[in-house]
Amino acid sequence: GQVGSRSPSLNSNNETLEECMVCSDMKRDTLFGPCGHIATCSLCSPRVKKCLICKEQVQSRTK
Predict the structure, then answer these.
(1) More confident residue, 25 or 6
(2) Which secondary-structure segment (H or E) carries 39?
(3) How confident is the model at residue 11, as a pLDDT?
(4) Domain RING-type: where (predicted)?
């Protein structure tokens, strides 16, 4: 029974990796530069001054 109970948590983790770290509603689609991380959707990215993953200053945003 343990294998079955682990599968749903794996699925929800995958969804969490794709959703915006700010609003959790939209998918992540904006690349921060120069670090190259994708942490937010295009609507939330202008509000983010430092990368939510590595805390590096965001100098550019690419959708």
Answers:
(1) 25
(2) strand 38-40
(3) 47
(4) 20-55
